[in-house]
Amino acid sequence: MNNALILIVEDEPEISDIIGTYLSREGFRIVTAGDGTVGLAHHLRLRPDLVVLDIKLPGQDGYEVLAAIRRRGDTPVIMVTALAEDLDKLQALRIGADDYVVKPFNPLEIVARAKAVLRRTMGRGGEQVLRVGPLTVDPQAYRVEVESPTGPVTLDLTRTEFRILAHMAASLGKVFERSELVDACLPEGEALDRTVDSHISNLRRKLAAAGVDGLLAGVRGVGYRLDNAHG
Questions:
Q1: Rg (CA), the chain
Q2: Domain locations in the chain?
């Protein structure tokens, strides 16, 4: 994890410098961009291990940059925002952010969250492939495939969606409370029920689009359960 390359996309030089300084002290390599266009160019060329992305950017805002990053792949992203409203956070998580920090923040918080996200997304060895009905969940490759008549189809999941699905797949039939899923899959985020609901909704939509219905069930007033059978 040390020596990981972190791309900071922030239009306020002072904030960018502070974040970069604290991350550099922990051994991370840093590259910066002052707007979304430059940030996306760096992302494409340098393939960073993590992106720290401000929402309020000139030109393309952070949501647009995040969506573009997600179209390219699953690079982990921490959003930095002055917007403390739950809906703004949920919007970032829906698009595929791995975590978020609200300004004003302690730079040490950015460092802690960066380390935590990288721990979750790098070097996951020794975990077994899980099979759930037509799904194959590979924790090491961060890949979920659906069996189809023409062969396996890979689902396009965000890292958070993958973590939730893999965590539930390891305990088939167990009913997970929302707080359990937050603790296991979003340990650095605020424990918002709607955050988990949003990720589950995205998972259901993507599973349904791949022809898998009824696998991920809601348990009224409790949480969610992953079953081996599907309709």
A1: 18
A2: 5-122, 130-226
Cα distances from 162 to residues 38, 121, 142, in angstroms, run 29, 11, 7
The pTM for the full model equals: 0.57
Q: Mean pLDDT over residues 132-149, rounded?
A: 85
- Contacts with 193 (C-beta within 8 Å, 6 or more apart), sequence order: 178
Q: Is 212 exposed, middle or buried (0-12, 13-18, 19+ CB in 10 A)?
A: buried
Going by C-alpha positions, the residue among 167, 170, 231 that lies closest to residue 200 is 167
- Fold of domain 130-226: Arc Repressor Mutant, subunit A (1.10.10)
As to burial, measured by CB atoms within 10 angstroms (0-12 exposed, 13-18 middle, 19+ buried), residue 151 is exposed
What pLDDT score does 124 carry?
47
CA nearest neighbour of 94 among 34, 161, 164: 161
Alpha carbon distance 30, 228 (integer Å): 44
